[in-house]
Design brief:
This protein is about 25% helix and about 20% strand. It has one helix at about 40-55, and strands spanning about 5-10, 15-20, 25. The protein is an alpha+beta fold. The chain is flat. The chain has 1 helix and 3 strands, in the order βββα. The chain has one domain (about 5-55). It has a 3-stranded antiparallel beta sheet, with no helix packed on it. The two termini are about 20 Å apart. About 10% of the residues are buried.
Length: about 55
């Protein structure tokens, strides 16, 4: 069964709550990019995913 990913955008900065139904993470942009820096940046999220694939 495919994994369903849900993304909820928060009106402050570029914050997003990313969830697969069981686990959640926060994505955001750094302050110089007009975010609030309260979560991983899109680049960090991508690198984390690639790192997990490499590690596994």
């Amino acid at each position: 069964m495919p994994t369903k990913i849900k993304i909820k955008n928060i009106p402050t900065g570029y914050q997003s709550i990313i969830s697969n139904g069981k686990h959640s993470i926060v994505g955001d942009e750094p302050i110089p990019s007009k975010g609030t820096d309260l979560g991983l940046s899109p680049t960090e999220l991508l690198l984390a995913g690639i790192s997990m694939c490499y590690t596994i």
